[in-house]
Write a structure and sequence with these properties.
The complex is a heterodimer of chains A (194) and B (47). Chain A is mainly α. Helix content of chain A is 58%, strand content 4%. With 47 residues, chain B is an all-alpha fold.
């Protein structure tokens, strides 16, 4: 997944860079961390947990998803001083805008979805049905802000197929930057901390 | 000697705290990107 790639690559780069400079790796200091858990929990229950996901109707899942993203946006805003957080926030807003404009879910074109799950499986879905965790199957002409949807795909033949949005790219870049870029630790500060 | 032990103890506490902070930060960032990102890879499709 593109998001995990951003996080993983950022951490590896940050650790490698710290080692190269001979400084200990210092992770970004997040403020109001409880907001992440509070914001993600409703989404986790309504979207990711199998049983509750199946029993949560779309009319309820959509506002839960948007509210959850709103709380996460507040968290990101409160931590906007961190390098990379502003990039992540751009992605967050892009994803949120397109989802709100299309009923609370991320639109995906049937042709794009077909590349991921196959023609036979996609034929079992109707237009407007939810597909995957946060997506909704919508043709391009019925989609608002189509350029912000899950429309990008890796090349054919790539071992891992995933559809992602422009917002996802910004989110992955922001996460990468946040973990990769480490401000140099002031030596006096380090000695004081020991 | 006592001062050195105390300093060593504080260093150990500091390292543990830093490791814990890193783990907590990574979990929070993972939840953040998972919560705000919306890629689709075919997972979670039950239809």
């Amino acid at each position: 997944m593109i998001l995990w790639l951003g996080l993983g690559a950022g951490l590896v780069t940050g650790l490698g860079w710290s080692r190269l400079r001979g400084h200990p790796y210092r992770s970004p200091t997040l403020n109001h961390i409880w907001l992440v858990f509070a914001g993600f929990l409703p989404q986790f229950l309504a979207i990711y947990i199998g049983n509750t996901r199946l029993t949560t109707p779309d009319w309820l899942a959509a506002p839960i998803l948007v509210t959850s993203q709103l709380v996460l946006l507040i968290f990101a805003w409160l931590n906007r001083h961190l390098t990379g957080m502003l990039i992540l926030m751009i992605g967050l807003v892009l994803n949120m805008v397109v989802m709100v404009a299309n009923g609370g879910f991320m639109p995906i074109n049937p042709n794009t979805a077909e590349r991921l799950v196959g023609a036979e499986r996609i034929s079992t879905f109707e237009i407007g049905n939810r597909i995957g965790y946060k997506d909704i199957l919508l043709p391009a002409k019925e989609t608002r802000l189509e350029w912000l949807t899950d429309r990008f795909l890796p090349p054919v033949g790539f071992p891992y197929q995933v559809a992602f949005s422009l917002g996802d790219v910004f989110i992955a870049l922001g996460a990468f930057w946040m973990l990769a870029y480490q401000k140099a630790i002031n030596e006096n500060q380090l000695l004081r901390s020991i | 000697m006592k001062h050195q032990l105390l300093r060593l103890n504080r260093l150990g506490t500091k390292i543990n705290r830093q490791h814990l902070q890193l783990v907590l930060t990574l979990i929070a960032l993972a939840l953040l990107v998972l919560g705000v990102g919306a890629p689709m890879d075919g997972g979670g499709i039950s239809g």
